[in-house]
Amino acid sequence: MNLAPWSFDLLLAVLLIGLAWRLLASPDLFKAVVLFIVFGLLMTLAWARLDAPDLALAEAAIGAGITGVLLLDAVGHLRRRQRPPEEGP
Amino acid sequence: MRMLRHALTLAAILLLFAALVLAMLDLPMPDTPLAGITQRHLGDSGVSHPVTAVLLNFRAYDTLLEIGVLLLAAFGTLALRMASDETPIPTASNADSVLTGLVHLLVPLMVMLSGYLLWAGSHRPGGAFQAGAVLAAAGLLLRLIGYWRPPLPPSVLMRAGLLLGFLVFLTVVLAAPLSGAVLATYPQAWASELILVIETALTLSIALVLLSLFGAESGAMQR
C-alpha cells in the first residue's frame, strides 16, 4: 500500500484543523488574519489534492488573496478607530 | 472550573467529529451521469475544458446570477462608503520606495498573467473569475503605492466598467429567446467566440467589483 500520499493528506488535514483552532483562539487580530491567509493557502493544497484545479485557483485568488486583504483592511480600520482617543486632535 | 468546561467542550467537539466521519463513510459513492454527459457534449459547447463549458454554456444562467450578486455587493459597499467619513489615502510621496519599485515590476506581469488566465480558461483551469481576481490584486497594489485608486463617487467610466460584464452576459443570454430558442442558448457556430467575449467583459467587471470592495488604505499594512 502506498503510504506517502496518505501521510501527506493526513498531515494536511491535521494542519488545517490545528490552524483553524489557532486562528480562532488568537487574541491578536492581525495574527489571526495572517493565520487565515495561511489557512487559505493550505486549503488550496487540499483542493489540488482532491483533483479540483479550478477550485484551487479560485481559493488561492479569492479565499486567501481577496478575503485576506479585506480582513487586513478591517483590522486597520478598527485600529484607527481605537487610536484617536490616545492621540488627541 | 474552566478546565472542566474546556474538557466538556472538547468532548462534544470530538463526538460531533466522530458522528460526521461515520455519516460521511456511510454515504454511497456518487454515480451521477453528469460527467459523462458533459464530456459527450463538450464539442458543442465551444470550449474544450469541461468546467468552463458548464459554467459559461450549459449553466450560463447560474453564472449570470452570480455576477448579479457580485454587482449588488459592490453597490452596497460603495453606498456605505460614500455615507461614511473619508479616510486619507496614500499619496505617491509617502509610499514605500521598495514597494513602489516592486510594483513597477509586478503590475505588468500581473496584467499579462490575467490575460493568459482568461485565454487559458477555454482549454485548462482558468477563466474569468481567476483572471479578474489577479487584475483586482494588481489594481490594489497600484492603490497601495498611491498611483491610482477607484474614484468615489464612482466616475462614469467606473460605473460603465462595473456594469459591462453583467450587461454583455445578459444580452447574450436574452438574445436566444428572442429568436425562439430556449434561454441562454448560444448559436452553435459562434459559441467559442461568444464565450470569449463574455469572459473578457466579465474579467473587467469582476476586477472592478473586487477593487470597489476595498475601502481602508494602507494603514492596515503599516500596523
Describe the overall structure.
The complex is a heterodimer of chains A (89) and B (223). Chain A is mostly helical. Chain A contains four helices and no strands. Chain A has helices spanning 3-25, 29-49, 53-82, 84-87. Chain A starts with a helix and ends with a helix. The relative contact order of chain A is 0.10. Chain B has 223 residues and is mainly α. Chain B has nine helices and no strands. In chain B, helix 5 runs parallel beside helix 9 (191-212) and helix 7 runs parallel beside helix 9. The longest helix of chain B is centred in the first third of the chain and has 25 residues, at 2-26. Chain B is extended. Chain B starts with a helix and ends in an 11-residue tail after the last helix. Mean pLDDT of chain B is 84; it is low at 217-223. Chain A binds chain B through residues 30, 53-54, 56-58, 61-62, 65-66, 69-70, 72-77, 79-80, and chain B through 51, 87, 117, 125-127, 129-130, 133-134, 136-137, 140, 210, 213-221, 223.
Cα-based radius of gyration of chain B, to the nearest Å: 23 Å
Largest sheet of chain A: none
As residue ranges, the low-confidence spans of chain B are 217-223
- Per DSSP E runs of 2 or more residues, the count of β-strands of chain B stands at 0
The run of helices and strands of chain B is HHHHHHHHH
Q: In which range does the helix fraction of chain A lie?
A: over 70%
Mean pLDDT of chain B: 84
Judging from the principal axes of the Cα atoms, what is the shape of chain A? Answer: elongated
Q: Span between N and C termini of chain A?
A: 69 Å
- Series of H and E elements of chain A: HHHH
Beta-strand content estimate of chain A: under 5%
* SS class of chain A: mainly alpha
What is the 3D shape of chain B? extended
Largest interface: A-B, 20 and 24 residues
Name the helicity range of chain B.
55-70%
